[in-house]
Amino acid sequence: MKKLFALVLVFALLVSISAASAKDVVVAFSQIGQESDWRTANTDDLRNAIEGHAGWKLVYDDAQQKQENQIKALRNFITQDVDYILFTGVVSTGWDEVLKEVNEAEIPLLLIDRIPDCADKIDYVAAFGGDFVEEGRRQIAWAGEYLKSIGKGDVDVNIVIMEGTTGASAQTGRTEGNLKALKEYPHLKLVGQQSGNFTRAEGQAVMESWLKSIDKIDVLIAQNDDMALGAIDAIKAAGKVPGKDIIIVGCDSVKAAFDAIVAGEMNATIECTPLYGKFVVPTIEALIRGEKFDKTVVHPEEGVFDMDGGIDLGTVKSIKAADVIATRQY
Ligand code: GYE
């Protein structure tokens, strides 16, 4: 018995020595900040995926919405000689130099979420992110098709577009999709277009000022759910009924938006998933095995959720939020 115990002890010791001596895989992540529920879910998901992986370590940097902080973080990652870099840029321009430095340091780069404009000029392994132009198209198409479905397809309707952080690819892409799709629905009249910076507080403030300066607002398109939720507070404070007096379409499909839809205060949300851990982990595992990638671009499949379901947007049909709320992960 004693011998067996000693043997087990030696074995355990050997295992722990080999585990400690194996070099950790260091994955560094330059995150934009924490402006929205989407961003929190994105950070949590990647943190869990990487820290939950045996032998992997996360080096995390929150840039607090500042490009210069992100540039500093990337240079720090290079100095630390991390093994892999995950990157999403607060705005789409101004990354050429620092990402070339990442390339020169031969650190494999994985782009997630907002893809920088210089992507075609640099090397990266893969890019995982939403199809922002399509998301913007879906927002307008949802409003247009919904109005048709309630017999208001040929009534003039006033619409406002609340944009995300100016210059972020999530904003430029969604705005491009919004404006292109508006041409298909000539009864939707654009009466306001302003940034709410992807935050609840700014969404509320912009809606407050619109309600004072614009006579009639029928539809709010908010380029993320947080701004839509802030706007709901402003609409209520102005004595109007969100979801009825003003139709509200958000983007992201975070839990709080599902709650608002089920409560009848918001009409629809276009999904943009923040859950990239399931793409990033297998990619890094494959790189470790020696597999090669060449700028693989993946837009995850995404849905549209609303009060009643059944609105046909061509590429996708909406699903009733109440039917799937229990299955949502973020
Ligand atoms: O929609 C918004 C977030 O880049 C897709 O950023 C992301 C956007 C998301 O703050 O809520």
Give a brief rundown of this model:
It contains eleven helices and 13 strands.
Helices, strands, pairings?
Blueprint: H1 2-21, E1 25-31, H2 37-51, E2 56-62, H3 67-80, E3 84-87, H4 96-104, E4 109-112, E5 126-128, H5 132-149, E6 157-163, H6 169-182, E7 188-195, H7 200-213, E8 219-222, H8 225-237, E9 247-252, H9 255-262, E10 268-271, H10 277-288, E11 296-298, E12 304-306, E13 319-320, H11 321-324
The chain binds beta-D-fucofuranose.
Describe the structure.
With about 325 residues, this protein is α/β, with parallel strands linked by helices. About 45% of the residues lie in helices and about 20% in strands. It has helices spanning about 1-20, 35-50, 65-80, 95-105, 130-150, 170-180, 200-215, 225-235, 255-260, 275-290, 320-325, and strands at about 25-30, 55-60, 85, 110, 125-130, 155-165, 190-195, 220, 245-250, 270, 295-300, 305, 320. It has a seven-stranded mixed sheet, sandwiched between helices. Strands 2-1-3-4-5-11 form a six-stranded parallel sheet, with helices on both faces. Helix 2 links the parallel strand 1 and strand 2. The radius of gyration is 23 Å and the shape is elongated. Beta-D-fucofuranose binds near residues 36, 130, 224 and 251.
